[in-house]
Write a structure and sequence with these properties.
The structure is a single chain. It is built from eleven helices and eleven strands. It has about 325 residues and is of the alpha/beta class. The chain has one domain (about 1-330). The strands form two sheets. Strands 1, 2, 3, 5, 7, 8, 9, 10 and 11 form a nine-stranded mixed sheet that branches. A two-stranded antiparallel sheet has the order 4-6. Strand 2 (about 50-65) and strand 3 (about 70-80) form a beta hairpin. Helix 6 crosses helix 9, helix 7 (about 195-205) runs antiparallel to helix 8 and helix 10 packs across helix 11 (about 270-280). The two termini are about 35 Å apart.
Amino acid sequence: MFRRTNLLWLVGLSLVAFQPRARGDEPSGEDSAAKATTKFLRIVEDDDGEMSAMETAIVRYERKSADGEPVTVDLVAAIHIADRDYYEALNEQFDDYDVVLYELVAPEGTRVPEGGGESSSVVGMLQRGMQGLLGLEHQLAHVDYQKENFVHADMSPEEFARSMRDKGENMWVLLFRMMGQSIARQAQRGDASGTSDMDLIRAMFDPNRSMAMKRVMARQFEDLDALTLAFEGPDGSTIISERNKVALEVLEEQIDEGNKELAIFYGAGHMPDMEDRLIEMGFQPKKQRWVTAWDMAPQTKSSQPSGSSNGRSERTRHREPVIVTRESKP
């Protein structure tokens, strides 16, 4: 039972938590009120209860700078394979910032070439396989990393390997963490709402296989906190928390240089921990927008979207098979 669930979780985490290379202290647990509850990914359903979209959030945070002027940071949650329209909408959004900090385990200052590049890593190969199966596009191929305001804000391969070694991490350790979290979740909910083997088999043989597989996969994202907890463990992980520390160090450097409007463009799985750290740095959440990453709406249905912003699967009509942005308080 848990082997099937862990496989789906591994695929899910590869899409929200790790951007492969293209050819500090932990947050305090004493102040529970400071812990974030913002949702960075959600499933949208239409009025018939049918899944119509998976959306990621852009959440804005603000604090005062030394000169009294506001500094804003947007956490732009990413899915690493998604609809092409999704990446085109994000490319337009990125023009609005002084600086966009991006993730990529690569040597310091690396720029992704136009059109991306293929990774030979296991995660990269897994993402490419899912890209074909789901009929989606890869982030590296469609995000314009050549923009002048893009700044690399991630570990180098050497730093990543050293951190994994220092924490005693490897893929087996991460797999066992996922097994434990999967078993705990199944026990908590009786596995009644989980994805079954038959769901996967039916999707594989569905006439519209890519759409059916997207809907099976999307259900794995509904509890993003549980997905990331599977990797994090009690002392954090290299994949999430240690890389987040590096990104926020670069953020402070960019703020010190006088930049006032910044964005952090990382996988959605990084964002709950990233938000906690931003709040500890004095930032407060201000507003939230939603962008459609996977359009799964039946083409015969067309209606206006709602503005609801909670993180549960919502009975919200999907307007059209392109980007829909909704703005609300986080």
